[in-house]
Amino acid sequence: SICHSSRRALQTLSTSPRVPDFAFAFDIDGVLVRSSDPLPRAHKTLSYLQSQCIPFILLTNGGGKHESERVEELSNKLEVLLDTTMFVQSHTPFADMDEYKEKTVLVMGGDQDNCRRVAEKYGFQTVVTPGDILTAHPEIWPFSSQFLPVYAPFSRPLPQSINPTDPAQSLRIDAVFVYNDPRDWGLDITILKDLLLSRAGIFGTLSPKNNDPKLPNHGYQQDGQPPVFFSNPDLVWAAKYHLPRLGQGGFREAFEGVWAALTGGSRAGVEFQKTVIGKPFRQTYEFAEKRLVAHRKDLFGGQDAGALRKVYMVGDNPESDIRGGNSYESPLGTDWASILVRTGVHVEGQTPAWKPNKEVGDVWDAVKWAVEDSK
Ligand code: G3P
Ligand code: MG
């Protein structure tokens, strides 16, 4: 890379350029772009860092397309050359969940069947979408029949994952992954609750254990129903509209409201059992840090680039970016600092629920402050 060769060149001049021992993790929505529009000084910021060979990664709770596709889009939009070694999306960690690759999984969220194709690129062999289920059984959620023409071009016949006596009960789902924001909350909530009330994830059945006060969790999710993985906790995010919009966390909260109403919820001692990844959770920050360390090493020709002393997490959402940056304890001993910008969810005059190390106007201010702070 240019950073490696330029350092080698400098070394011949007997100067000993040090590889920067600090780096950046940039949130995307509300920091670099607002939906499809780049923010004013995003290009200047990333270009500057690349000219100085200061490493950075993009770390987003967004997703819905394969990393290679999204990186190409962002490179064009921001007019900066990015690649997948410096890019972590909400669902990127799902690519490592090999134990489900040969199972039948339900993937929710995103436009058309983009997320099915992402899952297949990750190596998942049998991927079902809510559109497939509605197309095969329109009666499960009659209010979405008007959308059948939207689903038709992307739906596929349901896999025969088991051979029951009743063919209508041939689909068993082994795990549910929410890759991105569902577009049809009514359909997706209906399908998720049908699966979680089912016997062993077999679509169209009911578990006899449901609502049994003698069983743990009142008998709910105690009969081999599929685990549920959410990729992004964001209740709100910064889209093009000037006020924050509901995110995947909004969908999950809507589901949890329906689930509590159906099961009695916490009053009956029933908890919705799920896994949520994404910022601010440790798993995502640890995954991102590994990606950043590897990318930094690549940047300097695979040489040992020395310890990464500090990472500046630049974000717009106190709940995901600042809370995560503040609380992450790096196993490498790297110090993470958080910088909050006012170009997204958080705006001037608000008091953030999670106090950043520094609050600034935009991403350029963040980098200028951090470069000084790193000295
Ligand atoms: O769906 C995207 C949204 O939840 C937030 O994305 O880039 O601000 O983490 P980002
Ligand atoms: Mg954001």
UniProtKB/TrEMBL annotation:
The keyword Transferase does not apply. InterPro entries: CDP-alcohol_PTase-I, HAD-like_sf, HAD-SF_hydro_IIA, HAD-SF_hydro_IIA_CECR5, HAD_sf. Keywords: Hydrolase. One of its GO terms (molecular function) is hydrolase activity. Coiled coil: none annotated. GO terms for cellular component: mitochondrion. This is HAD-superfamily hydrolase. The lineage of its organism: Eukaryota, Fungi, Dikarya, Ascomycota, Pezizomycotina.
